[in-house]
Amino acid sequence: MPTFSPERLTDGVTKTFAACGVPAEAALVVTEHLVEAELSGVTSHGLIRVPQYVDALEEGHITVDAELSVKSSTAGTAVVDGHGGLGQVMARGAMDLAVEKASECGIGAATLVNCSHTGRLASYSLQAAERGMVGMVMVNAGGCGQWVAPFGGIEGRLGTNPVSFAVPTGDDAPLFIDIATSIAPEGKVRAWSTAGRELPEGWLRDSKGNPTTNPADLYEGGALQPFGGHKGYGLSLMVDLLAGGLSGAGVCSQIDAPKAGATDGVFLLAVNIEAFCPLPMFAQLAGQLIGHVKSSPPAPGFDEVLVAGEREAKTRKERLANGIPIDDKTWETIRAPLDRFGIEVETL
Known about the structure:
- The chain has 348 residues and is of the alpha+beta class.
- It has a domain of 91 residues: Orthogonal Bundle (Hypothetical Oxidoreductase Yiak, Chain: A, domain 1).
- The chain is built from 10 helices and 12 strands.
- The strands form 3 sheets. It has a 7-stranded mixed sheet with strand order 2-3-4-11-5-6-7, sandwiched between helices.
- Strand 8 and strand 9 form a beta hairpin.
- The longest helix has 19 residues.
- The protein is globular and about 50 Å long.
C-alpha cells in the first residue's frame, strides 16, 4: 500500500486538473478539498473522485472558467448561481457570502445551484466555524442520484442527501458532523468496491430487495438504505426539499432520473454566535459538554468516548505526520488520469 505526503498529492492532482483546462487557483481549491478529505480519512470524498472529475471536465460537463454570480439577495440572504462551475469553488464562495451576511445580520443564508459535485460538506460548515460561527450545509443532487430506497421500499427514490453542522469550541478542534441521510454515501460504496471489499451487512439491498454485501449490486438496480430507518428517511425528505427546493435545483420526481446528477442544489447557513451570546461563553459551554460526555466510561470494545469530528481530527494529525496511505487498487484508479498527462507522484 503506497503512502504519500499531502504536498506531493496536492501538486500532482493540481497539475492534472490544470491539464484539463482548469485555472490554477480553482484547480488548487478542488485539489486541497480532496486531499483534506483524505487527511481526515473520508476516502469516499477524497482522491477517488479525481477520475470522475477529469472525465466530467474532458466531456465538457463542467465550465472551467465559471464565476459565481448573485441572482438575488436581501440583507441576510443570497441566491447564487455557479454557472456549471466546479462545485468546491462555488460552494466555498457561497459560504463566504453566508458568513459575510451573518456578520452584518446575525444570520446569513445562501442557496447555490448550477455547479458540479460539491464534495465533503464539512469543508463548508467548518469554513463558518473557523470564523466563530455555526455552519450548516445540506445538499441534494437536483433530483438525480437516486441511490437510496425510501423506508419500506425497494427501489431508489432519493439521493444520499447529506447534511453537515459545525460549531467552534474555543480551540483548534471544532465540533462537527457530516453525514449522509443514507446509511452510507454512494462514494463509500464506490471506494469499497474499488478496493475489492465487501460491504457491512445492512447497508444495501439488491434489485429484488434482498440484503446484500456485494457493492456491485448497487449499480445493478439495488439501493442503499436510509440510516435509522424512518428517521434517516424523514431527514432525507427534508434535505431534498430544502436544498433542492430553495435553490431551484429540483427534487426527486422521476423514477428513471440519471444516477449521475448534472448539478447539486445547496443550502448554506451561517449563524453569528456573537449575535446571541458572547463567543467565549459559548466556547466554554461547548468545552463543558464535550468534557461531560467524554467522562463516560468506555463500553466494551471501545478505548474512549469520542465526540463528533474527533475521529477525523485524530486521523488528520496522524496522516500529516506519517503520510496518506492509499490501497493499491484505489491508487491504480486514481493514477490512471495522472498517467494520461504524464504526471507522477512519488511515494514516501
